[in-house]
Fold this sequence. Notes:
homodimer; 296 residues; alpha/beta; Rossmann fold; 6-stranded parallel sheet; 4-stranded parallel sheet; globular; EC 5.1.1.3 (chains A, B); cell wall biogenesis/degradation (chains A, B); glutamate racemase activity (chains A, B)
Amino acid sequence: MGDTRPIGVFDSGLGGLTVARAIATELPSESIRYFGDTERCPYGERPQDEVRGFVAQLARWFDARDVKLLVVACNTATAAGLSVAQRMLDIPVLGVIVPGARAVVQATHTRRVGVLATKGTCDSGRYRRAIHALDAGVRVWQAPSPRSVEIVERAVASPHAMGRDWMGDKDYLDTEEALAVAAEDLAPLMGHGIDAVILGCTHFPLLKQVYQRVLGPGVTIVSSAEETAREVRQYLGRAGELAPEGHQAKYHFATTSPELAQFCVAGEYVFGRKLEAVEHVDVADLEALASEGWPL
Amino acid sequence: MGDTRPIGVFDSGLGGLTVARAIATELPSESIRYFGDTERCPYGERPQDEVRGFVAQLARWFDARDVKLLVVACNTATAAGLSVAQRMLDIPVLGVIVPGARAVVQATHTRRVGVLATKGTCDSGRYRRAIHALDAGVRVWQAPSPRSVEIVERAVASPHAMGRDWMGDKDYLDTEEALAVAAEDLAPLMGHGIDAVILGCTHFPLLKQVYQRVLGPGVTIVSSAEETAREVRQYLGRAGELAPEGHQAKYHFATTSPELAQFCVAGEYVFGRKLEAVEHVDVADLEALASEGWPL
């Protein structure tokens, strides 16, 4: 009984490892196959059509690797291409936007919420729509913060990342620069009585402490990562596809990054454990997948 | 700590007691204030605008009664007026369609699902949209069955209802007539590889055994009632508004039915316990609420 096939997790880079980590914590018997498209990261400022094409390539890549469920762990990719992947594949494909929207709607008392995301995700209006599909009476303010992504990306590349557990080491990214950027970028969320904010980018949980300082203690900050992990559990549970308890989970990582060593070092501190099986995938090979016929 | 205010549950008649019952089972410490608009039941064939007006009246009625969360436990009313109630009230208002859509999307393996509902709910397209918002790759077939509502309503009014627990007494509605109607009305769901069907009307759980016989054992039948009860738990839990464990729940019922005794007898067998506090509300008083000013 049970299904020991891995769960696929796809992100534009390392940010989705926050989601993979939440899945590994929530479901310790589940194997995970992760793909980080680091070479083409960030997706946030790219045209929606281009991102949609990337998602289609990755859907094909995962289709050949027998995963039982795929998580599009990047908000920008979810906004642009989730429905494409869902129509392409025979397995359930989950995004991070619907779980995040559920969480923020459930968390608010004032029914005034904030969305902190990349520009692409904000512009897509997907969070607003997902929130209003659940509760038409909730008011939504958005704040794009591309600079938050940059701060996290830069920190990933820094040698100071070595030896740290980012999600555990709460003060690491709590710098003066990060605080100044957050104070500026979060301004659209201030003064409206907002009491719950969704972190609509998988990079952002690493800056949660900084955001909390800016927003104040009365605001609940919700991350898509935990919500998505709970959603994965519900899907697999209801479908009878959870791996049997005690199953030895395996974690496999693939990346388009040519700097495999750096991906391993940085990834370890986002995922919270050593990345042991890491494979390089050439962007050209992904692009070749796109030219193959596919019934869309 | 905790919030002992009741949960409001609103339905066009008795069907929503299947939802109230699921909430009472899932959350035994929670008080419930139920409203059944029996005098104007069924809503299923009425114009959407009219049903929307009814929902607005009931939202006002509940607003004056200090409930902490309101469930619109009628699919037709959810489809027509959920967003109106959400914009009118300061509390969370949950419908039954989104929880049901979640459940059926999670339950299917073939990613081909059926919706069995009233004509109004089918025509509104809300289930199809809610399902596709979660998974654009799931194919949906709909089957309206107004006659199922009639069979249940007639059985409610019958003296044979006395002394029965409808949800427990599985064979009670499993008659030749019900089977013939189900075989005919469920025809649009047959032969498509559907492996999960949502009962998109609160009356229909009472006919679940009949539907299962028609659909066959390989099809999972999902009822909105349990899903909605789980959703209520999530909302209250996350907002810190669950009643403290061991709190003595009180159940209060109101109905527009002029036949209070009959409402009590029939209600008891859907709700699964005696209806002790039952109040009659005049339709004219609800209509008067509609003429009062309200900032919509």
